[in-house]
Specification:
Elements (H helix, E strand, L loop, with lengths): L12 H31 L8 H32 L9 H25 L2
Length: 119
């Protein structure tokens, strides 16, 4: 039963605003990953092997793009669930982002190791 302050058929706006803040956090994370990719390309031109920094930079930029797009898709799904008064859909996206970032970190660790051993 809706309260006097809440019109019938409208979800609580706090949920929508919280969902929007979550989307903005995903976008900030994606932007930070892209900025990291640009920084690697600019400031670490020879990371272990000749192609190392380019590979890491491209991986970071693509992970950032995927994070931003995945955040948008999650936001859209949550908005639909909020509007329909259904439970929020499960997130299968977060483990993918964690795995992608972990993979990039492993590659960076290996390339830094190659750089240090090569000196």
């Amino acid at each position: 039963m809706p309260t006097a302050e809440e019109p019938a058929g409208h979800p609580d706006y706090r949920f929508t605003l919280a969902n929007e803040r979550t989307l903005l956090a995903w976008l900030r994370t994606g932007l930070a990953l892209v900025a990291g990719g640009v920084a690697v390309a600019q400031f670490a031109p020879d990371l272990g092997v000749r192609w190392g920094s380019a590979a890491v930079a491209v991986a970071l930029v693509l992970t950032g793009l995927g994070t931003a797009l995945g955040g948008y898709l999650r936001w859209r799904g949550n908005e639909r669930a909020i509007a329909a008064d259904r439970p929020l859909p499960a997130s299968h996206f977060l483990p993918s982002v964690v795995a992608a970032v972990a993979a990039v970190l492993v590659v960076v660790a290996v390339l830094v190791g190659v750089e240090v051993v090569g000196r």
